[in-house]
Specification:
Shape: globular
Order of helices and strands: HEEHHEHEEEHEHE
Strand order of the largest sheet: 5-4-3-6-7-8
Structural class: alpha/beta
Number of strands: 8
Length: 179
Amino acid sequence: MGDHDDLRKFIIDLAVVHGRVVLSSGREADWYVDLRRVTLHHRAAPLVGRVMRDLTADWEYDAVGGLTLGADPIAVSMLHAAAEADHPVDAFVVRKAGKAHGLQRRIEGPDIAGRRVLAVEDTSTTGGSVLTAVEALREAGAEVVGVAVIVDRGAGDAVRAAGLSYRAAYTLADLDLLA
């Protein structure tokens, strides 16, 4: 099996949780995909970086990140995967709100002004979180080249409607989940 198949197995085995949950979008579901169980796992995290780099290999970007908390481990995994491939990218974290102390930055990490960036998210149903990150990135002067998620729960249309390219490593069908 390759990285894509190996990561899919980790997602199915570790991240898919069955039971009634309320999603961040406010919608209810009979299952939840808790990707932090995968993105923070010692064996799965390197796969996340490689799979997401492969998914976006034809997009040119200098930095990767998104709204904290879902995007943080993805960005770091991609940073490491890119360094191993001798094609370095920086990572950044978008806060949900600006800091009231210190440097009062909303986006942490290397400066992204004037740079091409990739916005990432672990899973997305409505696109709300990643579009919030995109807005902050644009306000900071970055050029957002696209949005990439590990698992798409239906956000693709909303992200594309916002004028962004969108890719997902896995669909619900890939994970044997019904919408």
